[in-house]
Amino acid sequence: MKDYFKLDEWKIIEEGFKPGENRFTESIMSLGNGHMGMRGNFEEKYSGDSLQGTYIAGVYYPDKTVVGWWKVGYPEYYAKVPNATNFIGIDVRINGEELDLACWQVNSFRRELNMEQGFLKRTFTAENDAGVQVAVSARRFLSMARREIGAVSYSITPLNQEIELELVPYLDGTITNEDANYGEVFWKASLSKAETGVGEPAGRGCLALRTKKSDFLVAAAMEYKLNKHPVEITACQEKKYVDNSIFLTAKPGEEINLTKYIGVTTNRDYPDDDTISQARSRAREARNAGWQKLFAEHSRAWKDIWDEGDIRIEGDAAAQQGIRFNIFQLNQTYTGHDPRLNIGPKGFTGEKYGGATYWDTEAYCLPFYLNTRDNEIARNLLLYRYHHLDKARENADKLGLDGALYPMVTMNGEECHNEWEITFEEIHRNAAIVYAIYNYIQYSGDREYLADYGFEVIAEVARFWEDRAHFNPRKNKYMILGVTGPNEYENNVHNNWYTNRMAVWCLEYALETIDYLKDGYPGSFQKLWNELGLSAGELEKWRDMIDKMYYPYVEDLEVFEQQDGYMDKELKSVAEIPEEDLPLHQNWSWDRILRSCYIKQADVLQGLYFLSDHYDLATKKLNFDFYEPRTVHESSLSPCVYSIIAAEIGYQERAYELYLRTARLDLENINKDTEDGLHITSMAGTWMSIVHGFAGMKLKRIAGEEKEERILSLEPFIPEKWKSYSFKINYLGRILNIKVTSTGSRVTREQGEPLKILLEGEKQKI
Amino acid sequence: MKDYFKLDEWKIIEEGFKPGENRFTESIMSLGNGHMGMRGNFEEKYSGDSLQGTYIAGVYYPDKTVVGWWKVGYPEYYAKVPNATNFIGIDVRINGEELDLACWQVNSFRRELNMEQGFLKRTFTAENDAGVQVAVSARRFLSMARREIGAVSYSITPLNQEIELELVPYLDGTITNEDANYGEVFWKASLSKAETGVGEPAGRGCLALRTKKSDFLVAAAMEYKLNKHPVEITACQEKKYVDNSIFLTAKPGEEINLTKYIGVTTNRDYPDDDTISQARSRAREARNAGWQKLFAEHSRAWKDIWDEGDIRIEGDAAAQQGIRFNIFQLNQTYTGHDPRLNIGPKGFTGEKYGGATYWDTEAYCLPFYLNTRDNEIARNLLLYRYHHLDKARENADKLGLDGALYPMVTMNGEECHNEWEITFEEIHRNAAIVYAIYNYIQYSGDREYLADYGFEVIAEVARFWEDRAHFNPRKNKYMILGVTGPNEYENNVHNNWYTNRMAVWCLEYALETIDYLKDGYPGSFQKLWNELGLSAGELEKWRDMIDKMYYPYVEDLEVFEQQDGYMDKELKSVAEIPEEDLPLHQNWSWDRILRSCYIKQADVLQGLYFLSDHYDLATKKLNFDFYEPRTVHESSLSPCVYSIIAAEIGYQERAYELYLRTARLDLENINKDTEDGLHITSMAGTWMSIVHGFAGMKLKRIAGEEKEERILSLEPFIPEKWKSYSFKINYLGRILNIKVTSTGSRVTREQGEPLKILLEGEKQKI
Fold it and tell me: For residue B419, what pLDDT band results from cuts at 50, 70 and 90?
């Protein structure tokens, strides 16, 4: 799929009608605005292959857990993101025949995702068996300025004869999910209402549905405008469907335009009995404002985002298009406007992984939002977890453990993934949540957050590790048994190096935070100390664990062993896998994957990335050389971390290859599953590959300075092909502009006070 | 639940009505005849707590596998045994009021399972709010002589006034399963027919249902006889239900009896279009034969079983009742009449574990049937696997492996359990299937079986091990990674000692068999050699694996390590678990169980039991002492193996305790789950505890004799409390009677030629 889309710095362009690639392109052409989103489905009916998908943030269905042998502690449900009311739909009938590109001859076809302004445009000409030719142009956007509003502008022009035209804007709630047991339907009807003749020669409709079991009410309302007075309008109102049928005639060359204005609200934001009227108000408000005004507001919002968050690359259109696609989709998925929301691995682009929150947020996404947007947004991501602390305590308690264990997958703080090896064992996620606090404090300087919220989470996670590890007197070491590391191609292993190391890091950071709070916020600290029931003895235990943690290590190769027994595997390289066996997870049975040496995603390397400052280049190089050839990168979260380490250890070519793999993962369908939706959370990794990888941005401890002082350091390189790249970052209240060219790099301060940084190892005042 | 049932050598007696224990007693009071079976449910309506269950051998429903993240190789379905048509039901209305023990006052109540003759009897007296008192006596059996026939004799006597009585014998297909997703129903209606006035003053009915997806047709037909001419009979016929309503009057003291005759057939045994008429013929045939004749045949069949298979214990009623209950239920579950059937872990006593075949059959059940019944029955159990060899080859191929991997759970040779850690990893089952062949050959002397069937299975299993293990050049050893051993409280471990050891044993036995067949059956052998594509090089590889297999071992303690890393666990003893945490699987989350040192069932010890002859007493003692205190015996398959080893190493008291735990596991509800059904397969372990444990029966190699020659050896002890015990075994065509008293033991030959055995280490000619 390397050259499927045209190379363009601001657009993703599909030329020609390729039904076999429709699901793939639908994923790529997804739109979202943080509140709602949808795949690049057609407005008019399409009977060919398509994954219909419209998703509403925070709305889920709790799918009952079903396993052969029930095990204590299993979550009751797996959260699914249900496909919601199709509100973009406009059926088109021409001389009584349905316009359906699966049945008509398509003469030209183009889909274009405009990333600069955030809209989707589709144009085509088509001809039916009777020789009627029409041209269609459709544009749509979901407003970034008014989140509950979307608009579709649909124009149709007969090309060679006068036609009788029926345009049917509708709201359809008879949708299904592909990911459903026995075809189960997730929505109940709540209200449907279709009217005609509501001001102008127009009509409107409203449809409200309620999810089964979880009881989310989602209301969609539509109004519309026409550029020609219709012959007749009729309304249809069924249990889960409403429409207006608009009858017109159109002469050859006469463009008929219908602009559909949509309001979508949920009872997450309004009282139940107000939700429907709010959706109606939004649709009315949108129609009153009109396309031009709405679009101007929307594209202004995008301009602001790009001003702050763009990465500009000169001399490499593929790299430029790739990074922009990533930044665009991230900003479509999560806007930070609602602290109850988070970042689903597929955002609004598919059903899989349930739109739920994973550790991806803290480990991959946080740095992106933290450095490219207002601190408030990253803070909201942190508060999301803070608000779930009690549920995380309950979760640990369910497993018989002290402290807090954050869920692996969640919609509302409750664990909602139903495989034991993930839910119960992939506990390293707890460390990422603490690491995100550390990251936030370092880049924002908002240390008060520690006293107000952060420390409670840090302490409860430390306590979890304290209880989860045990002391092995035979080896005089602490051990952590029965875990799944970041590499999910291993389950239930003992002493995953990454998990053990990050657990210790959490304890170290907890102690560091205690020292800091004691001095900086003595009052708050004493209160927290008492409330949490901490004791000197407990801190002593943490110190003992830090001293005596066991880390698997391969003496002869001087590499960290991913977990106990990894070296007993048949040690092969990815190059030895026959091409047709890849990706392994689609071709090999699970046990074969588990016992193989192949690694899904960065595991030891993830630790070397997070704790970069603790390991020297030689160590990173040895571990990269050992693990990279065994890594299949079948998690989209993998190549970015390898790219960053490769950049650091001077493997510039490999860093660039891995960068392209992450940047163009979806555009080139590298993991062969983009049809299911985009890999949203890993897109932040692409951003990291440039900023942390190529530009080498990190925080370094300064020898001799205060213990917790770290300084921003940049050690950029530029891929051979590139003329320059530049980006901005938000750091300690400043906006810094970093530009790297083949002759050198320059950091300028666009906002805020002067500060010192390290640039290529030299201290500079900016 | 220690004294819930009266101690009686031939009966299980429940006195008094205890609604809270009803599910438990229903399990205990189950009846079966190899073709069908049912729990001890009441005939008349009961609105209190009850697990309704009627099951038909070989009939299953393929329940779709549903997991969060699909993995390649997952079986499509989990086989469920569907609760089938309730054919024992007889509703009773007295003066228009339903007789329902949940609503009536129960004055006396007794349920009695007669194991000697194989029937269930229930008597009670009850009184309603209007003061009407009745006495009821109900008996039923499922014929061991005519498997498709069952009969219920139901008598009711008004005690203090004349009553208007309505008796409603019915067939009810509107039954449900508790183990069903979203209340799904597994049966479709096929035919229902109710008639009255069919000869005598009587009627009849027929109901046929078909399982969804798997398309099994099960037909049930009823006829009946009354001891009094009724006032009226009406018939009711609904989609999945038929009945006759019989109206009578009865004077105080007048016993009204209805005897219901049932025929049950399936399209497993007849062409689809003949199945229903066959059920009708069976019901008619039964009614013509009448209760007395049917019951006489049935109890004669039981007499034959007891003559061959009883174990008699003098001086310990609890032990006697326990062993008889086990022998009784085993013979109810599997009769060997149909080689397509096998032994479900819960037989006909509950829904769980799907009535499917597990390794329990080969590892636990085979010796029981082999030594207590005709060889044909054990041979049928072996042929069951032989007939599934091609499916086992496919199963290995699905996992990317050569040879054959038998399913962990199956109805028809296909794997039908949907958890990867079991399905993909509990591969030791393959060894048990070979071990069963070895056992069969040793005890039956039927060596031709090796040439005709056995060797193909042995060779394909050997080949599976050959491919599944890999050579680790770092340690110069073969290893088997990513397995689940018999102890299912560990998953995905490396180098489970039992698995590695049994894999090597399979290779050794394969080579031994090749040597034997080469000499004994050169023609057949050459054919097999060619068909299987064996080569000298492959055999060389097997020998190399035998030489260089890796076995985890704890040097300082001189014990075999259950798997790599076991010694890194927190090593506690079961005594340290708080009482309220037991059983662990009902109280601890799965990860906690996995990382604990606690063992569900014999694992290393299972190997020491199977390969007893290879290990000396000191080794057995060290391993018993180390593992037994860490074993929670939460598999019913566990205590018997520990009991056998305890007996062997002279821990007689512990052997006896463990024996009682296995013998009375269900009668005393020791694992707190008997309400779900009985632990049928482990009942064979109870038999082994006496025969292999107390009596010390095993096959010993004789030094200096021909390689494959083994001799039967007995080294009995008798528990202190017992006066004597005796049993018969079928060995190499002889029936031997073994009697052990506190003063000594005696072996007599009841059938067949003289032979030599070892008794207490001395060679004797019998």
Answer: confident
